[in-house]
Structure formats: C-alpha cells, structure tokens
Amino acid sequence: MSDLIKHATEKTFEAEVLKSELPVLVDYWAPWCGPCKAIAPLLEEASRDYEGRIHVVKVDVQDHPEVAAKFGIRGIPTLMVFKNGEAVATKVGAVNKTQLTGFIDESI
C-alpha cells in the first residue's frame, strides 16, 4: 500500500477529507469486495501520479458504516471526489485506469 494513501475513520474523516486543502478522492471499499481489490493498484498509482494535486483516502465501509451512510453509499467500490468539503463527483463500480484518470481529471 502506498504511503500516500490514507485510511479515514469516522473520527478522522473531517480532518482528512472535508478540511483538506487539496481535492480528495475517497474510495469506499471493504476487504471482502473483489472489485475493490481490483482497483486498489490503480488507486495506488493515482496517488503517486497526482501527488501534490489530490489526496487519496480509503474508507472501509465494514469498519466505518456511519461514514458510508452519511454520504449515501449503497454499493462498493464507490469513488467520490471532495473539494472544499463538498462531494463534487461520484462513480460507482470498478473502473479501469483510463476511466479513473478521466474521472479525476474532470473532477479536479
């Protein structure tokens, strides 16, 4: 796992995501989710490629269901981009690298 990817909890979500100076890509996932595991390497790559322009944060919905519920997460993986404390874009389901970079580029 990349050192650039952070793991947010109910207690750290506000500081890690909502109060971030940079846009934040949040990955709502769970350890048992196959598609979540499939996109993990792409998120690690994105955390390096977009270093200094966006933060990547993961939220384990199994351990922190209150965070997922607060943002209406119903399926995983769900990717959500936050800017200035607001969710500005959402993508549900696994993505390939082209889809991920397109999603990030159009959101930031």
TrEMBL record:
TM spans (from-to): none
Domain Thioredoxin positions: 1-108
UniProt KW Cell inner membrane keyword: no
Residues flagged as site, Contributes to redox potential value: G34, P35
Superkingdom as given in the UniProt entry: Bacteria
Active site residues according to the UniProt entry: C33 (nucleophile), C36 (nucleophile)
GO BP, one annotated term: cell redox homeostasis
GO CC term, one of those recorded: cytosol
PROSITE patterns, per the entry: THIOREDOXIN_1, THIOREDOXIN_2
Keyword annotations of the record: Disulfide bond, Electron transport, Redox-active center, Transport
Residues the record marks as site: Deprotonates C-terminal active site Cys: D27
Disulfide bonds: C33-C36
A GO molecular function held by the record: protein-disulfide reductase activity
Sequence similarity: Belongs to the thioredoxin family.
Protein name from the UniProt record: Thioredoxin
